[in-house]
Design brief:
Layout: E1 20-21, E2 44-50, H1 53-66, E3 72-78, H2 81-88, E4 100-104, H3 108-112, H4 125-128, H5 134-139, E5 150-151, E6 157-162, H6 163-170, H7 175-181, H8 185-198, E7 204-208, H9 210-218, E8 225-226, E9 229-230, H10 234-248, E10 252-255, H11 260-264, E11 271-277, H12 278-285, E12 302-305, E13 316-320, H13 327-339, H14 341-351, H15 358-364, H16 378-385, H17 398-414, H18 420-434
Parallel strand pairs: 2-3, 2-4, 7-10, 7-11
Antiparallel strand pairs: 1-3, 4-13, 5-13, 6-11, 6-12, 8-9
């Protein structure tokens, strides 16, 4: 197959190595996982752990050239994402911990609330992050109001759809009309039925129930755990209902999210659209828009709208560890990568990433065009969408509990394998097993 495996980022190469190492800054190089404070050059080392090669690129291609007089080396350790937490947890809080760590949105709160991250506010980051989108700061802030992590990107989610299909099947010829037609889930469901009918059953509105689930997870009013108690947000019952209808009525291809079949729909005529965050365009949709044999391509035929709800998915936060002896140096790196306006503007222009600095976004959004989206200025759309994100629903339990809900409740219920009461109870039982200290009614 073509691109679907390689776009799963670092996690897809877990079998290649336990550690993948980028070169150190200032001319030195190291291998292995030793976190010693002194590198082979004899200088002190700032050790950075990451699960994404983006951070390596930022440091090696942007930060180091802009800081060529550093009195220390930077050693970057890339760890596959499925190993990251198991490698980090045993040493975090000890002298062996890295100085800087990258944190994915699925587990960032676990570390923000751990008591083992440095106070970035006391290191000048509160002031530096004045123009950072509030939701990005909320994610990196602990319950006691201390800023521990920041991100260079913001990740509002949208609905990416095929423009040619919208015109042929629904009579929709521009994104504004598409948004009006898909502005709530009742309309989304009705248009999904129209897509099936008008295509003769050959095209599905979405590929997977995940294309419903991710927006619903991101639009909740309540987090999974509040005051030590499991909370099932009212919107999740709506998710169960609409997912069941989509599967029973054949409105979804019913693939598994991020599976080979899910990615394959991006270069076929079987799927009308996908729910993806900002980064999904560059890491998933673009690499998979052309068939493996180059027989077909959907490049230029995609458009993006908010769809029925505002939501977000993913992103990478970075912070310094509390035991680091190089907290000021770590804070300098974090500040540059997440708040320096010149860098963020250049990064946005070079990569198309939607950055976390509102002032930078306002400066560049009017001039932005994306050829892959038929010349659409999706950057301006995201600039509006990001304002509605509520990141306060994130908790340290999210990665596990969301998976439990999907696997024990949403998937079996949507497929008609259990009734809703049983599905909910199975989910509650799974949470009790995973987190005995969480109160479950």
């Amino acid at each position: 197959m073509k691109n679907w495996k390689r776009v799963l980022q670092t996690a897809s190469v877990a079998g290649l190595a336990a550690f993948m190492l980028s070169g150190c800054g200032n001319g030195s190089g190291n291998s292995g996982s030793d976190n010693s404070a002194t590198g082979s050059s004899g200088k002190n080392e700032l050790v950075v752990w990451t699960f994404t090669s983006e951070l390596s690129t930022m440091i090696n291609d942007y930060y180091l050239p802009a800081h060529d007089d550093l009195a220390y080396d930077i050693r970057i350790v890339e760890i596959p994402s499925d190993q990251f937490e198991t490698k980090l947890d045993p040493i975090l809080g000890s002298k062996d911990a890295p100085d800087v760590i990258a944190l994915e949105s699925a587990f960032v709160k676990k570390y923000v609330e751990s008591g083992m991250m440095a106070d970035l506010g006391s290191l000048g980051l509160d002031e530096a992050a004045a123009d950072t989108y509030q939701y990005v700061k909320d994610v990196g802030t602990s319950k006691d109001g201390v800023l521990h992590a920041l991100a260079w990107q913001a990740a509002p989610g949208g609905f990416y759809y095929r423009a040619s299909m919208a015109e042929e099947l629904l009579g929709i010829d521009d994104p504004a009309a598409a948004q009006a037609a898909l502005s709530d889930y009742d309309k989304f469901y009705e248009e999904a039925k129209a897509v099936k009918e008008k295509s003769g059953g050959t095209t599905y509105m979405i590929s997977s129930v995940q294309d419903l689930a991710k927006p619903f997870y991101g639009q909740r009013e309540h987090g999974w755990v509040e005051d030590g108690k499991l909370v099932i947000d009212d919107s999740l019952y709506d998710l169960l209902d609409i997912s069941r209808k989509f599967v029973e009525e054949g409105l979804t291809q019913d693939t598994e999210g991020q599976s080979e079949a899910w990615f394959a729909g991006m270069n076929s005529d079987n799927v009308f659209g996908y729910s993806l965050p900002t980064w999904g365009l560059h890491y998933w949709l673009k690499p998979n828009a052309t068939a493996a044999d180059n027989s077909s391509s959907t490049e230029g035929d995609w458009r993006m709208i908010q769809g029925p709800s505002s939501w977000f998915w993913g992103g990478t936060w970075i912070g310094a560890t509390a035991n680091s002896e190089m907290q000021e140096e770590a804070a300098q790196l974090v500040a540059y990568l997440t708040t320096d306006q010149a860098f963020l503007k250049q990064w946005a222009e070079d990569t198309g990433d939607f950055v976390s600095n509102e002032r930078v976004v306002e400066e560049i959004k009017s001039e932005y065009q994306e050829e892959f989206l038929g010349g659409q200025n999706h950057y301006a759309e995201f600039a509006d969408m990001v304002q509605d994100i509520n990141a306060k629903i994130l908790t340290e339990y999210d990665q596990t509990i969301e998976t439990l809900f999907t696997d024990s409740c949403l998937t079996p219920y949507s497929k008609g394998e259990v009734d809703q009461e049983t599905a909910i109870q199975n989910f509650k039982d799974a949470v009790v097993n995973a987190y005995p200290d969480v109160q479950v009614d």
